């Protein structure tokens, strides 16, 4: 019997749908408060002098450091001022000769090179002029952009880390398992993943396969913005999550995607709470947790959408008989993807040995094919 599902949502569309459904914070634009740099500055440690005097000796008047007021010196013919990187140029100087290109004798210096006007000088306003638009409103935040806001006197406070709840589901999850039971490995895995991705994590006890318990957890989520669950989203008698969400009036963003592992992946909004209902199989929970949580955190924090994909060649062929693209565990060896002999979406042993997940189109890929892959973090 074929299990092909033409209605499954392609991964990139699912990611886009999640991105569009989440609100980005208000992202202000930025204008330059003053010229950048605000005065001519030294870009090397050396002496500030008049270039037109060529290699002639100069008498050193003193030293300017980054932050020194340059007006205390005036560079007249036959003089120079020692200057450190970042210091404003003194009046009269138009070039810097670096320490390495100077002969020094007491307070006299002699350039060993022919200085030219503007040598090793960062010109006033060469990066921006006062009033220039530096970043339009809506530009996603990054550490570099936050630094630019700080430079212009508009320090943006760091946002508190988003709080992410993690709750596994399943009656089979117990701390001391008999042979028909298992330990909860998804909970600790997803907590670690959320922590790695920069969230503040609340790892909760596993929930039983009971609609009432799931409903209670969803209706009283506590102080979290995102809830990661694992399990209970497929076709089994105990797969209650989709029905519970429907009864609670949640907005289902998608349920079931064209990816192996990850077919029953579910995302829903319940008021302000984003629920990522990850499939229970550990590799599936990992892959989808990584893809969807990193995107959701970036969106809610006002960062650009992360692109986890890199490209490399497969060292060996990988078969994929299904109709879904496959993310296959690999080792990266000298820049090539060496497929591991994995046993599918329940095989945590192979996932833990992998450092890459390679994208294998439906139908499989031959050895030597270049394909996209993402790191296992
Ligand atoms: N008739 C069908 N059966 C299944 C389908 C389907 O389309 N039709 N899809 C399969 C796929 S694909 C996946 S993935 C799984 C996902 O099912 P659920 O998300 O409903 O997960 P569960 O059934 O609750 O559990 C699946 C598997 O994972 C183990 N598990 C669950 N939670 C944990 C945990 N916290 N730590 C470790 N392992 C966990 C669980 O014991 C099961 O073995 O469904 C397929 N079936
Ligand atoms: O999504 Mo499932 O993990 O393909 O077996």
UniProtKB/TrEMBL annotation:
Keywords: Magnesium, Metal-binding, Molybdenum, Molybdenum cofactor biosynthesis, Transferase. Signal peptide: none annotated. It holds the Pfam family MoCF_biosynth. The keyword Transferase applies. Its EC number is 2.10.1.1. Residues 25-49 are annotated as: Disordered. InterPro entries: MoaB/Mog-like_dom_sf (IPR036425), MoaB/Mog_dom (IPR001453), MoeA-like (IPR038987), MoeA_C_domain_IV (IPR005111), MoeA_C_domain_IV_sf (IPR036688), MoeA_linker/N (IPR005110), MoeA_linker/N_sf (IPR036135). Pathway: Cofactor biosynthesis; molybdopterin biosynthesis. Residues 31-43 have a biased composition (Basic and acidic residues). Residues 165-299 form the MoaB/Mog domain. It is an enzyme of class 2 (transferase). It catalyses: adenylyl-molybdopterin + molybdate = Mo-molybdopterin + AMP + H(+). Its cofactor is Mg(2+). Catalyzes the insertion of molybdate into adenylated molybdopterin with the concomitant release of AMP. Belongs to the MoeA family. This is Molybdopterin molybdenumtransferase.
